[in-house]
Write a structure and sequence with these properties.
By secondary structure, this protein is mostly beta strands. It has one domain: Tachylectin-2, Chain A (5 Propeller), CATH 2.115.10.20. It is built from 2 helices and 22 strands. The chain has a 5-stranded mixed beta sheet with strand order 15-19-18-17-16, with no helix packed on it. Strands 1-2-3-4 form a 4-stranded antiparallel beta sheet, with no helix packed on it. Strands 5-6-7-8 form a 4-stranded antiparallel beta sheet, with no helix packed on it. Strand 17 and strand 18 form a beta hairpin. The N and C termini lie far apart (68 Å). Bound molecules: beta-L-arabinofuranose. Beta-L-arabinofuranose binds next to strand 1 and strand 16.
Length: 363
């Protein structure tokens, strides 16, 4: 009887099998890569950094370099609710870049909750300014009574570390501060946000823990403004409301969810006009309204950014190296509302001063 060893007997078959297994494995790898590529190509732009979660990008150019002041999202394990408890951020990291598309540097922890004397919890969307030879970081934070106030911290460097003032800015409340410098050198702070941002609790600058939004057919809660003192640490005037009007000159109503202010105010100036942009929150648009001075009134004009992946939509607009850019976030990396990633894309003004609407998804 022929005693050919089993390997020799089935040698050719085995080799063919091994080749087939290897080929299948390679095909699967290629498929995964193509899938990733396809997934990425759905988005208009890609996350600026991937090593940490970042959101609410406020961008500024200081000394010809672009600095982004974002929230630093973390997994706090807190269930999602309408108060935003799941956004339990503890510190800020500042990002910078020398040119569009270039290397992005994370400058590490610039300010942490544990170093803020009046801190309760939740470091939300910050903004920054340069004045008096110093950099000022403005941040919203709940105090020890769980009421949002706005704090300020100082540094000699745009990237910190920042030293917080012992108390919040007197007269400040709610969240999402943005600092705008007009051509005459005057700084203004816009702020406020409803629901978890607690703005509905404030009426005529007085706090009522039970305050709610007006009825749907009544004028909506409005964002707030205050001129800054030269020290950049205090308001120079009583906080005022910023009116946003419809095409007939009437205040936008609470029930006009596609257009009324929710949170994330930003101000930019273009050809002498003042552009107030903001998020509509539960309808997820970034829209804008135009006025003739920093206080408004502002007339609603349209949508800058359609809804992104994730519940929140939050942005800033800055000119850098001759072009205008929109900075925004979505949840491309995590698929989770509270773990976001910042992005940027070019923003274009039309010749009539309107802004071209941006779609964050390509398909
Ligand atoms: O990041 C926390 C909050 O989510 C911000 O303050 C809001 O504008 C929204 O983006």
């Amino acid at each position: 009887m022929n005693k050919t060893p089993i390997f020799t007997k089935y040698k050719t078959g085995l080799i063919v099998l091994i080749i087939l297994i290897y080929a299948t494995a390679c095909t699967n790898t290629t498929k995964t890569n193509t899938g990733d590529k396809e997934k990425k190509s759905k988005y208009l732009s890609q996350p600026l950094v991937e090593h940490i979660y970042t959101a609410d990008p406020s961008a500024h150019v200081f000394n010809n370099k672009l600095y982004i002041y974002p929230s630093h999202d973390v997994e706090a394990g807190i269930p999602e609710n309408d108060f935003g408890d799941h956004f339990d951020m503890r510190d800020y990291h500042i990002l910078s870049m020398e040119k569009v598309g270039g290397k992005i540097t994370d400058h590490g922890v610039a300010l942490a909750v544990k170093d803020i004397p009046w801190a309760g919890r939740q470091l939300w969307a910050p903004d920054a300014a340069f004045a008096n030879g110093k950099y000022y970081l403005y941040f919203p934070l709940k105090d020890k009574n769980d009421v949002f106030k706005i704090g300020v911290a100082l540094s000699d460097s745009p990237t910190g570390p920042f030293t917080p003032q012992p108390k919040p800015i007197a007269g400040s409340y709610s969240m999402d501060p943005t600092i705008f410098k007009d051509n005459d050198g005057t700084f203004y702070m816009y702020f406020g946000g409803i629901w978890g941002g607690q703005l509905q609790r404030w009426n005529n600058n007085k706090y009522n823990a039970d305050g709610i939004e007006p009825a749907a057919d009544q004028p909506a809660v409005l964002p707030k403004i205050a001129r800054m003192n030269a020290d950049m640490l205090s308001f120079a005037e009583e906080v005022k409301e910023v009116q946003i009007l419809d095409e007939n000159g009437n205040l936008l109503l609470t029930g006009d969810n596609n257009r009324r202010f929710f949170e994330a105010a930003w101000m930019h100036k273009y050809k002498g006009k003042y552009y107030l942009s903001y998020s509509t929150g539960d309808t997820h648009f970034i829209c804008y309204a135009i006025g003739d001075n920093p206080y408004g009134p502002f007339k609603y004009e349209g949508v800058i950014l359609n809804p992104v992946e994730g519940w929140t939509n939050h942005h800033s607009i800055t000119q850098f190296q001759g072009k205008w850019f929109l900075f925004y976030h979505d949840t491309q990396l995590s698929g989770k509302t509270h773990l976001r990633n910042v992005k940027m894309t070019e923003l274009k003004h039309n010749s009539d001063g309107t802004i071209q609407t941006i779609n964050p998804m390509v398909e």
